[in-house]
Amino acid sequence: MAEAYDGREAGAWYACATPSTRGGPSVAKYLLTATYTAAGAKGLLAEGGTAREKVVDRLLKSVGGKVECMYWAFGKTDFYCIVDVPDAAAVAAASLIVSSSGSVSVTTLPLLTAKDIDAASKLSPEYRAPGAKAK
Prior knowledge:
Helix content: 25-40%
CATH superfamily: ACT domain
Radius of gyration: 18 Å
Distance between the termini: 57 Å
Shape: elongated
Order of helices and strands: HEHHEEHEH
CATH architecture: 2-Layer Sandwich
CATH class: Alpha Beta
Structural class: alpha+beta
CATH topology: Alpha-Beta Plaits
């Protein structure tokens, strides 16, 4: 049996597989994206990526979560991180404390599995588009 991939090496999709596909417990999964301010970028340059990775690991552990994978990138968004957390309150607390530092702007996106989409497709929400006639 292959060892579980911890998400720290590039190139393996398994790093971002959902816990249910790996046989683990179900948890809330989120994508955190971040953009550094000038001060945040200076701090990253001074500390390096490995040190910041440890900070993010500790942050998520402090709210009962864990980092699945994290990457820095070029472009408008500087940082991508997929995390497993117990609930929305945990990820909100982590996101708020980071954003309140003023060095990083964080966006938090809930991630859905294929099973989540299957369940959603079975619901029958009522909706009327703006300007459409009521039935």
